[in-house]
Structures are given as C-alpha cells and as structure tokens.
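I am writing to request your help with a piece of structural work I have in hand. Here, with my thanks, is the record as I have it:
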Amino acid sequence: MRAVDLIIKKRDGKALQDGEIDFLIQGFVRGEIPDYQIASILMAIFFRGMNLEETVSLTKSMVESGKQLDLSSLPGPTVDKHSTGGVGDKVSLALVPLLSACGLFIAKMSGRGLGHTGGTIDKLESIPGFKTDLSLEELLAQVKEVGCAIVSQTPELVPADGKLYALRDVTGTVESIPLIASSVMSKKIAGGASNILIDVKCGRGAFMKTLKEARDLSRIMVEIGTRMKRKVTCLITPMDEPLGKMVGNALEVKEAVETLKGTGPSDFTNSVLELAGELLFLSGKGNTPEEGKEIAREVLNSGGGLFKFKQMLKAQGGDERITDEAWRLPGASFRWVIPSKAKGFVKKIDAFKIGKAAMILGGGREKKGDPIDYGVGVELLKKSGDFVTLEEPLAVLHVNNRERIKEAQDLVEGAFSFSKEPVEKLFKPLARISNA
C-alpha cells in the first residue's frame, strides 16, 4: 500500500476503505508518511468529501492513535460537552461545576482561542495560579475527588488530531464537515464519557454560518456516536450575537462567577441551563431535557454550582478569592466608553465584529502561539431587544494599549444595528439532533 495511490484514489472521488484510512493516519503519527502527502489527502477530502463510513473510520483511527481515558471507575454517570466555538462563549466555566453539583462526573478537555473566538483554557489561565496542564492520572484522580475538572488537551489523547489540525490550519482545509466531525468526535470518544453533548454554534460569529451546515455537521457527529456506542446530542444554538455581555478572558471568568451566583445575564444563564438540562436527560437524571433544566436551575439557585467551582479552583491551584474579589483577576488600565450614534431598539450585534475587536485589543490571537492580554476585552452594555437613546453608552472597551482603541471602536460601532420596533430578546436553541 502506498500513500500516493490513496491520494489519487480520493482525488478521483472514490471512497477509502478502513485499512487504507488507518494506514494513512497511523503512518502519519509514526512519522512514516510525510506531511506533504497528508496535506494532499486533506485537500482531496476537502473537495471530494467523505461518506459516512469513511468519516466513522477516520474517527476510529484517530481515537486509536493514542491513549483513551477510562472513566469506568467513577461512581456515577459520566458526561462531556464540546462547543464548536463562538464569541463570549464561557459556558463551560459555569456548566462544568453545575453538572458536577447535579451528581454527574465530567473530565473536560478544552482548547485555546484562535482568531475571533475565545478559548476556555485561556479564560481559566487568567485566574492566578490555575493549572490546566494535568496528566491523565491527575485528571482522573481530581474527577474522582471533586467530580469535575477542566484541563488543556493532552497530546496523549488523539495525537493524530493535533498533527492533522496543524496541517489543516495552514492548507486551507479547516472548513470540511467530515474533518471537523472526526476531529470533535475523536476527542470526545477518547475522553471516555458515555454521554456527550455538542453545542453546535450557528451564525455570524460561528464557523457554521448557516443552519443547513450546522444540521449536516450535527447529523454526522450523532451517527458517529451511535456507531461507537455513545449517547450524543447536538444542540444547535445561535451565535449571531455574543453570548452574555463580556468578551475577553478575565471578563468572561467574572461573568461566569456572577452566573453561578445567580446574577448573570439572562441569555447566558439560559444557555447554561439548556445545556445542563440536555446532559441531565442524557445521563438519566431527568426524564426529559425540560425536567433536567429545572433540576439544574434548582441546583444553581442553591449555590451548588458556585461551591463546585470553588472546589475545582482549589484542586487546580487557582485563587478561590476571585469568586468574591474580582479585582484579583487581571484587569485593564483604561476603560473607553462607546456612545450610541442612533436611537431605537438594538436589533442585532454582529458577534464576529465584537470578537475581532476583542482580539485587536490583545484578548485573542491571530495565529497559534501569539501571547494574549488576559485583562482586555469588550463589555456590552446593551443587547438585542434593549432600547437605547442617542449618546447613551453602548459598550465599554477594556484597554491596555490605547493605540488600538480606534480600530476596536470602529468594529464595535459597526456591530450594532437598530430597529424602530421592539425586538424579541430570548435565547432559543435552533435545533436538536440526538440518538437518545
């Protein structure tokens, strides 16, 4: 078997067999097949696609490229959650401890931000002392003791994904549904959880721009879960507007804490509860997602999620005092208020532009490895549905480098659109696709 023959086969639109896909993936991980040949395969897949059988085979081969986490020793239902990425998406920070407080066990592996989307690990690393780099043994021990952990993705699990993504990132092959599906699901399967929720973001601030794209991706991921004996639900949620009011690493930690205290923004709080309800249903703690949501709401109101968050902070070396003393988080030296140039109801807020503004201020990275400023970002004072008068403050830029204010302000001003008529202000999942 030769890699070049398989490149030609896929180039010509033919389906690859299980053994052929495994030959390519394992050979690449072992260094026996050069990256230029794998880059050719990725481009062929980008243009020719993969059928379901090929995508399942690719996922299995990626899972088998490294270790797999065994969660069978945990004394309760195991769950995992993944988001395809968005602006202001700090859901895991509140959801993971809330799920643990509801009696579920979650060993969450997360990534860093790139471009206009933020990363959970960057947000957690804005907390003084918080350690995200745990071994698999340390991760399992913490989840047994505390019930939850959020750590950075380890190269021990699915090393094929890291190597493949690095190539996809520089060869223009990121936006391929089979490649996205296998990347996401290989990490979730290797993570060991029996019940998996994928939050598929859809809209201007997401990688999936249309509902059709989001549905196509969701159906494939659910089918992969079915073939690999996992309960999987994909909840397609809107990402035309930033989630919550804060966009920026330490700012989003602060907002997640406020949410766990019951004082967070309504759209963000409802998003956390919707996702919690789905996972409680998947794991058998609720008879329906709606019942699961009410269970989560009760635990949130009781302070259980905040208590678990503090436990997780302590276990991973983070400063617990940030939950009551937010000034201990990194901050910005200057606040720049942006007044409204219009009067009316906020109709839309372009999530992509807000995310890009936060990146320009230093809160995100244009390429992997770029340093980020944990204290900067964008604070939205108005959201869709809110009425605003002329010159009333719309947003605040949290700034450390004043030379970047003008570009960021132009983006934020351009992100807002207005209506003379009232606008509905609700977080609503767009679709649910599940094998449970």
